[in-house]
């Protein structure tokens, strides 16, 4: 890997030397051309005063060749990550993340924001990854920011989580409960697979505001150890007791949310317990399945007539309006 910087330095030195020599030949050609007859540049009577054009342009060919080789070396070096890309340094975002123009209020300026940031400005949160400590901290920061803006304005959370660690999921659950206790209506929408603690969080929305799409799926399972444990028998016994205590805590919350008795919850969580959207409504995990309304577009286009003024008012559908 140390050979490539040497080759790059050598190419730069050769490029500078070639440019210097080509500049000298260009000056010589310019001086000689002053004595060149104007009527015919190629048929010159004084052979000594004529400039051999191929010789004068030969250094420029070397210059172009060396510049091309140097640019190819730099491009290959940048592709392998040894040189920072200007675009990566200018836009520090995830690869493949779409950017949208957003107009700053009360100004004529625009700012490029990702779709996730635009949805967050509409108080919509997308939970689409496995929830570990890092992701839970990010979601907690978003919820706390929305609470600081307006503690009672509704928040919508879309879930498609393959699972979550126990401690970060409980921290996120406690934050959602605090938002609800302060008067904030939390809407949860499950549109794909919600497994383990992801299904538990999807059921943590406000009563009557827990939705799911028709093809969504829920997987309830018993929580286990987040990492293998080792040590003496007494230490393993302490970890096992703590795990059983946390499992009992999750079962109590599920019993309170769904209205099912503890014996039923414990029996269902012995194995992986799959629920479709309709079965989740019957089980008490969510409140409603979002069935598409095929005539909703025509209704919105037609509008409603105001009985007092007689004007037709068309409803504006914003983000997350069902």
What keywords describe this structure?
alpha/beta, 5-stranded parallel sheet, 3-stranded mixed sheet
The tally of beta strands, per DSSP, is 12
Low-confidence stretches: 22-58, 83-92
Strand content: 5-15%
What is the global morphology? globular
Instruction: Report the mean per-residue pLDDT as an integer.
Output: 75
Report the biggest beta sheet as strand number plus sense, adding barrel if it closes. 5 strands, parallel
Number of helices: 11
Distance between the termini: 57 Å
Strand order of the largest sheet: 3-4-5-7-10
Give an overview of the whole structure:
The model is unreliable at 22-58 and 83-92 (pLDDT under 50). The protein has helices at residues 3-33, 53-79, 86-90, 115-121, 133-149, 166-181, 197-202, 233-258, 262-268, 277-283, 296-302; strands at residues 99-103, 110-114, 124-127, 155-159, 186-190, 193-195, 210-212, 217-220, 273-276, 288-289, 304-305, 312-313. A hairpin with a 6-residue loop joins strand 11 and strand 12. The longest helix has 31 residues, at 3-33. The chain is built from 11 helices and 12 strands. It is of the alpha/beta class. It is globular, with a radius of gyration of 35 Å. The chain starts with a helix and ends in a 9-residue tail after the last strand. 48% of the residues lie in helices and 14% in strands. Helix 1 (3-33) packs antiparallel against helix 2 (53-79) and helix 5 runs parallel beside helix 6.
